[in-house]
Amino acid sequence: AQSVTQLGSHVSVSEGALVLLRCNYSSSVPPYLFWYVQYPNQGLQLLLKYTSAATLVKGINGFEAEFKKSETSFHLTKPSAHMSDAAEYFCAVSEGYGNKLVFGAGTILRVKS
Amino acid sequence: DAGVIQSPRHEVTEMGQEVTLRCKPISGHNSLFWYRQTMMRGLELLIYFNNNVPIDDSGMPEDRFSAKMPNASFSTLKIQPSEPRDSAVYFCASSIGQGAHNEQFFGPGTRLTVL
Description:
The structure holds 2 protein chains of 2 kinds. By secondary structure, chain A is an all-beta fold.
């Protein structure tokens, strides 16, 4: 069965600092991996997705993630945090037919000025 | 493009009452998903449809919950009778096809409070 673990329910960084949000997955088949962002009182929005085309995936708003099969990881990074990045971030995995998503518990990112 | 539309955005009801949540997927999308988000359990998939047919309802918590999709542009999630533990944000999402790589587009959610 597929599952996702997000390390750290809360991450705090200073504006301009590196953002690193961790995600590890478990899947019995090559997975499809997603990062979604949720701003307060809004639905989820796709940041980026891994579909086996390239291990380094670039997304919107300057975010990127690297798929590492040996580490079963798909960490999300951004070189320089902006105040507008403050939100909750969810890693999700999908496998096989029928795109059911299994979400991690989420990481709340706080950006300090 | 209007995106996924959900109504109502907020619902407050009393225990025992029937609650109906509504969703209009993005035009042309043929897969529809209902999720529930709570602090304790995070985001959970309740049920999903493909071409208006329920494919997997294993996440529906119990018989008090039911979902329908009478046509490609409308779905409902009903709770009868409602209980305080049903209080959560309910999201509807839609996507094109059933491929595991397909992006799901989420609506703004319905915040349900059962007193």
